[in-house]
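Hi C.,

You asked whether I'd gotten around to modeling the 416-residue construct. I have! Everything is below, sequence then structure, no commentary in between.
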Amino acid sequence: MSLEIEKKQYLFIALVSIVPGFFVYFILSYLFVIPKITIPVSIILPILIFGLVRYYSTPQSYTALGPEDSILKDNQKDDIHKQDRKIPNEAAASIFFAAIFSLLLIIFAFSSSDFHVFVEWKDISTIGIIQLVTANALCFFIPGLAIVLILTRKYDLNPILTVLLAYFFSILITGLSAYIWSLGFDTPVSELKNFYIMLYSAILVIFLILHLRYKITMRLDGRVEHQYPSFYEFVISQLIQFMYYVKNRYSELFVFGSIFMLLIVSTYYIYNGVTISDQWFHQGRALLFLSGSFRETAMEGSDNLGYPPFQSALLAALTTIAGIPIVNSYVSIAFLNMVPVFAFYFFFSKWVTPKFYRANILASTLFAIAAGFNWIYLLGLTITSNPITSPHSFLEILNTLRTVTIIRPTNFIFSV
């Protein structure tokens, strides 16, 4: 009986979620938005709504895991053996992370370089894609994660906070070093490949000495040394934990997955893998960093346009590490627009009282797609005073309105 009720509930939620998809499709079609955009958005938004409705229609005891992000246990026996598995699994995870870090460094050390401005994505080989993925990992996650694990080796840290701190430390390490070398020593960032190899290698060595050694030698009660799981056991345990996590939080994963797909559509997909608008300025300044001309330009006062140079220095470092043309490198980092969403989710969860904790999903969704309210304003104008009769009339309204969140994306959050 309960299974039948649950099926009917899923069917009802699905129907409720599909209706807004048709509504969005007709609105975008009315605005003469091309099917390339209209159809994906009309599919993604119902999935997003389904996740929200499912999340808030589920009793709190099953979905609200609290600020500690604890996972509900099947039985008390799991709680008893949790601590027995925790330390060996942490050591195995540290060894696995060190192996990944080492592999990325090897790929980086033997990668080739291509400092053209742009090449067609179809002309980039599989090796080039691997280099780009490696560069993104080294610039925005891996070194910072090593630092975070070193600093918190005796403590348990919230997973989302760990990712955010890893992102912060990584861009600080990579971008600040490029900025100092370029502005302080007038050194082209394109010549810093060996420096970054040594820098990341030093971080890896410190990680092995401090964090990994601590995890391997640590005893649970000071008397008994643990037997560490094999690689097979570690992988199986992580898969089981992952499946259990998905089972308990699939509605939230639907929401964040839909937001990420909207990000993909509004960046990579719409602009066909090229950069637009103010991104050109950052690329031009990054070329000054790459060629070693930024210091001279700054001293002449030619670089005084209100944009902090750190982002351009970071982009130059990414291009150097990836060995891929600068436009392609810049396009590849569009996925980082999800970081503010996760940051907002984390801080909202910490700011509000436990009574309102479940509002974090809805608040994060509104934060991610808040630019959609500008589309409501635009739609109101088309109905009241500026009716749309052709694609040209729609472009004229956009030109008159000049709303930045509608006509062009920003650097740190995307618009829909």
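If it helps when you're writing up: Residues 61-85, 219-226, 403-416 have pLDDT under 50 and may be disordered.

Thanks,
B.
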